[in-house]
Amino acid sequence: YKAQGVMEDVTNRIVDHIRPGPYRLDWDSLMTSMDIMETFEENCCVMRYTTAGQLWNFIAPREFVDFSYTTSYEDGLLTCGISLDYGEVRPNFVRGFNHPCGWFCVPLKDSPGQSLLTGYIQTELRGMLLQSAVDTAMSSTLANFYSDLKKALKM
């Protein structure tokens, strides 16, 4: 999946809200928990997070364990990740898997107070799910992600 939108803020502040850390749980309505399991350097970690059930719990809550890295990219920032086979799956969750994913955030050249945020998401939710249900859930999840992030950045 690819998602793209113009955000009313600078790249550093936007990426601070997306990357693993204290802001994410405050605004991301899909994410229900996040634990940093290992930190390798300031912008590099292994995190475990859980997501809420979707489509009236037709898609059960999921758990992911991802390696996450954030770095400068051209004039902006890139935060990327990939899932790891790490630790035991907690009860009441299905372990999902993220293939290489990333969020690119670059300033708009003609408008320095705005940034273009582009996400490439390759999530395998796993479990017995119809692809049409996954596609429906992903489209609404990504729309909510941008909407929730825009509200958080206004605070």
Explain how this protein is built.
- This protein is an alpha+beta fold and 155 residues long.
- The protein has a single domain, classed as Alpha-D-Glucose-1,6-Bisphosphate, Chain A, domain 4 (2-Layer Sandwich), CATH 3.30.530.20.
- The chain has 3 helices and 10 strands; from the N terminus they run βααβββββββββα.
- Strands 1, 2, 3, 4, 5, 6, 8 and 9 form an 8-stranded mixed sheet that branches.
- Strand 2 (31-41) and strand 3 form a beta hairpin.
- The chain is globular, with a radius of gyration of 15 Å.
- The protein starts with a strand and ends with a helix.
- The mean pLDDT is 92.
- Strand % is 35-45%
- Main β sheet profile: 8 strands, mixed
Provide the CATH architecture.
Answer: 2-Layer Sandwich
Oligomer: single chain
CATH class: Alpha Beta
Amount of helix: 10-25%
How far is the first residue's CA from the last residue's CA? 28 Å
Structural class: alpha+beta
Which shape, going by the Cα principal axes?
Answer: globular
Overall structural domain count: 1
The CATH topology assignment is Alpha-D-Glucose-1,6-Bisphosphate, Chain A, domain 4
The overall strand count is 10
Rg estimate, integer Å: 15 Å
Q: What's the helix count?
A: 3
Mean model confidence by pLDDT: 92
Contiguous uncertain segments of 5+ residues: none
